[in-house]
Amino acid sequence: MEHKLLLVFFCLLFLSPLVSPQLDYKYYDATCPNLTRIVRYGVWMAIANDTRMAASLLRLHFHDCIVDGCDGSLLLDDTSTFKGEKNLLGNKDSVRGYEVIDKIKFDVEKACPSTVSCTDIVTLASREAIYLSGGPYWALPLGRKDGTTASDQNGILAQLPSPFEAFENIISKFTSKGLTLKDLVVLSGGHTIGFAQCSAFKHRLFNFDGSGNPDPSLDSSLLTSLKSVCPNQADSDTTLVAFDPASSRKFDNSFYKTLLNNGGLLQSDQALMGDNTTASMVMDYIKYPYWFSRDFGASMVKMSNLGVLIEQKGEIRKNCRAVNHY
Ligand code: HEM
Ligand SMILES: *[C@@H]1O[C@H](CO)[C@@H](O)[C@H](O)[C@H]1NC(C)=O
Ligand SMILES: *[C@@H]1O[C@H](CO)[C@@H](O)[C@H](O)[C@H]1NC(C)=O
Ligand SMILES: *[C@@H]1O[C@H](CO)[C@@H](O)[C@H](O)[C@H]1NC(C)=O
């Protein structure tokens, strides 16, 4: 009797990877062999028109995944009976790239109709965007399905890190998903490309925490220039400033050097230097750029596996902006 139970136990142990469906590196090899080529072309075209789009596609993927998993929910438009995520605080007037995903989806549907999820397209597009920006490349397991629901504002506030919140909160938003402190440091390196609006860091320039003074952890010459780019008036709120002005289009490790020089735009980024553990990781990525390239790919794969829907748990949307209706 005990032997039989043991046997059943071992069979289940060895068969479990087979019976529980998983993402697969070869998922579309037979059904959409040109997928990577199509996505790369679409991202290349988008970046050729607007270099910032590389950063925007990476952020779109992050905001999709960190809120209730990678399920393409961020792509869904509002309707009279459905409220999506893209017009909620944290995403509205900030996340961009939806048209690029639509265009790629159109080309993918032409080549392989109803085969590739919008979520996998977003995932692939951010990998291609990093690669085309001079960054690393990594293998991606595929087979994510698209969700049919969206988070509400409270779900977004609870899961999406804010540039204004305490570092401990940001850490717990990552660790509650199974992402580590190291993943946080590595993925924050995504801020080596792209831009922030003045509204994301203006509170540091004039009256930090009600002190009447600027944030003391901000470099003083950067402070002077930021005050002139982002004057203390509401009409400067949407002005864009590069996270990594030395190379805002190149995916390299220089974002970490800005932190070392007290030049992080976001309070939440500069906070990486205020903690010994994360600061020593930052120092490592400055010293050994290869470690950053290698670790970034690994952490991106982890992030892109958060809460994925497989098999019948989701659908292959026809239009990335709307759930299918049958
Ligand atoms: C750790 C907590 C994080 C916070 C608090 C944060 C916050 C922000 C903020 C405030 C902006 C500027 C948005 C705007 O002004 O409209 C931004 C932009 C950006 N974020 Fe993050 N972020 C975080 C993590 C990440 C991660 C993990 C990634 C990707 C791996 C990422 C990628 C980007 C990119 C690429 C941009 C520039 C987008 C563009 O130029 O369109 N961020 N982030
Ligand atoms: C893949 O793309 C190549 C080059 O554009 C084309 O010749 C080929 O027919 C495509 N294959 C499939 C299966 O769509
Ligand atoms: C090119 O980029 C601009 C924004 O910089 C955008 O308004 C326009 O729609 C883009 N054009 C194409 C063809 O993607
Ligand atoms: C962090 O590093 C500083 C300076 O190297 C040191 O004085 C402090 O004791 C360290 N704190 C912890 C908690 O290790």
Quick summary of this structure?
The protein is mainly α and 326 residues long.
Describe this structure in words.
This protein has helices at 2-19, 35-49, 53-66, 98-111, 118-132, 153-159, 167-175, 181-188, 220-229, 254-260, 267-270, 276-287, 289-304, and strands at 195-197, 240-242. By secondary structure, it is an all-alpha fold. It has 2 domains: 19-160 and 300-313, Orthogonal Bundle (Peroxidase, domain 1); 167-298, Orthogonal Bundle (Peroxidase, domain 2), CATH 1.10.420.10. Strands 1-2 form a two-stranded antiparallel sheet. The longest helix has 18 residues, at 2-19. It binds protoporphyrin IX containing FE and 2-acetamido-2-deoxy-beta-D-glucopyranose (NAG) (3 copies). Residues 52, 55-56, 58-59, 62, 94, 96, 161-163, 170, 184, 187-188, 190-191, 193-197, 200, 266, 268 line the site of protoporphyrin IX containing FE.
